[in-house]
Each structure stands twice: as structure tokens, then as C-alpha cells.
Write a structure and sequence with these properties.
single chain, 253 residues, mainly beta, Hypothetical Protein Tm1070, Chain: A, 2 domains, nine-stranded antiparallel beta sheet, four-stranded antiparallel beta sheet
């Protein structure tokens, strides 16, 4: 029966030209952007760190170039080889790979050939009396970034706060619009600003920062006229510091 269903689906695809269904998201590319990495002191003697993970799921060896666009400083580059069907883990990336004890910024990873790869980062706080906590930050390939980054269902009540950010992966400055709406699309805040090349801008605790009454089901979007952006949100527990990372989608672009 399952074989019949598969053959039937294949026949429909061939006869109609419709694409076969896709069941998973490929976040990889020959250029992958991680909007923010960092290493800096936390509360009570704790330390924020970033671990990086890379996967080469192709038959082709490649050399990856990691460009750390350090906020307020010149970019740094490192090259790392990766073999076919292998993974790499780079612990405490900012210190061990780039030699900086206190820095943050955008990470751009590029392949030496036309074969893609995938990457993600874990940003976490170590050494706190409350224990270790952090969040996963997916690397997104340039081919799936868009002019819009939309997040929804964000909550500033029941012990939560919300941080949002947007990264400019382009080599030129980008004019960005920020729109924050309630669950019925009522406007709560809007503004426009310019991001410099490879700059990431983060707005912490948006309800306090923009004078918005704390509420649930908030919608946030960053959008531009022509250029790609990587927008994200982080919903954080006030009591534990535990966070959920949400990357922006592009339903209207």
C-alpha cells in the first residue's frame, strides 16, 4: 500500500509538474549568517560565551572562511577546513578562535566552493549560581533570507521579557523599518533606522524600551525595500534567564 502511494505521488508530480512535498527546511548555503555571537561578563561573575557548530553534508571537501564583524572594531577572519560528511565544534569561539575576551558582532561563514554547509551557534551563560542557560541561534543561508523578518506570538507577561534584533548581511548600508503590533494588528511602535554593512542592532526588553504595555501575542517585523536582513527575537524568562530564540520569516515578500 505504501509503495502504491509513493508511485501514485510520483506519477502526479511527473504529469502535473507540481513539486514534490518538502518535509524539512534546508538552512544551509555557500554563505551562512549567524546574526550575533559574543563573549562578555554576566551577572555575579558569570560569563556569556558562544559555541559554534558546522556540518558539511556533501561529498566535497572545503575551506570555510569565518568573518567576525566585531562591533566597534575591524573584522577578523579565520579559515577552517572541513571534510565531507563531517562536523566541527568550536567551543568559546570568540576567545579560542578569534582571541577576544570581550566582544560581540555578526558572524559570516563562506565556503571556498559552490558546495553548501550548515551552521548554528549556542550562546550561553556559564558560572552563574542559577546554573547554565542559553539558546540556540541558527545560521541562515543568504538564499533563504529576505526583505522581511516577521515574528509572532511574543509575550511580555507571566515573567517574560522580549529582546529583538536585526542583522544586515550586506556589504552596503541598509534602511530598515521596524513595526511592532498587537495581536489584532494594532500598532504599538514603529521606527526607521540605518544599519551599516554587516552591523547587527539589538533592542532589549522592548516593552520597557518603547513604553509598550506588557501583553501577549505581539507581532514584530523588520522590513526593507530591496535588501536582505536577518531578524530575530529572544523571549527570556525573568526568573531563570532561560530563553527561546525565534528567527524571522517572510510571509509577504
Amino acid at each position: 500500500m505504501r509503495r502504491f502511494a509513493f508511485l501514485f505521488l510520483a506519477s502526479v508530480v511527473l504529469l502535473t509538474g507540481l513539486p514534490a512535498p518538502v518535509s524539512a527546511l534546508n538552512t544551509g548555503d555557500t554563505t551562512v549568517i549567524i546574526p550575533i555571537i559574543g563573549r562578555f561578563p554576566g551577572v555575579g561573575g558569570s560569563q556569556w560565551r558562544t559555541d559554534l557548530f558546522i556540518a558539511n553534508r556533501s561529498t566535497i571537501s572545503k575551506t570555510l572562511t569565518l568573518t567576525f564583524h566585531v562591533a566597534g572594531a575591524a573584522p577578523l577572519q579565520r579559515s577552517i577546513p572541513i571534510e565531507p560528511f563531517t562536523t566541527l565544534s568550536l567551543a568559546d569561539l570568540v576567545l579560542n578562535t578569534f582571541g577576544l575576551s570581550n566582544a560581540s558582532g555578526q558572524l559570516e561563514i563562506t565556503s571556498s566552493n559552490m558546495s553548501g554547509f550548515e551552521s548554528r551557534a549556542r550562546i550561553y551563560n556559564a558560572g552563574s549560581a542559577a546554573g547554565e542557560f542559553g539558546q540556540n541561534v541558527p545560521g541562515l543561508g543568504l538564499r533563504i533570507l529576505s526583505r522581511q523578518a516577521y515574528m509572532f506570538g511574543l509575550s511580555g507577561i507571566n515573567g517574560n521579557r522580549v529582546n529583538i534584533g536585526v542583522a544586515n548581511p550586506n556589504a552596503t548600508a541598509v534602511s530598515v523599518n521596524l513595526q511592532i503590533n498587537g495581536r489584532t494588528n494594532n500598532s504599538l511602535h514603529s521606527e526607521a533606522f540605518t544599519l551599516q554593512p554587516h552591523q547587527t542592532l539589538q533592542f532589549n526588553d522592548i516593552f520597557t524600551r518603547f513604553g509598550i504595555a506588557p501583553q501577549a501575542d505581539v507581532q514584530v517585523q523588520f522590513f526593507t525595500e530591496t535588501d536582505l536582513v536577518y531578524g530575530y527575537a529572544s523571549e527570556v524568562r525573568n526568573d531563570t534567564g532561560d530563553a527561546i530564540f525565534i528567527f524571522g520569516t517572510s510571509p509577504n515578500s
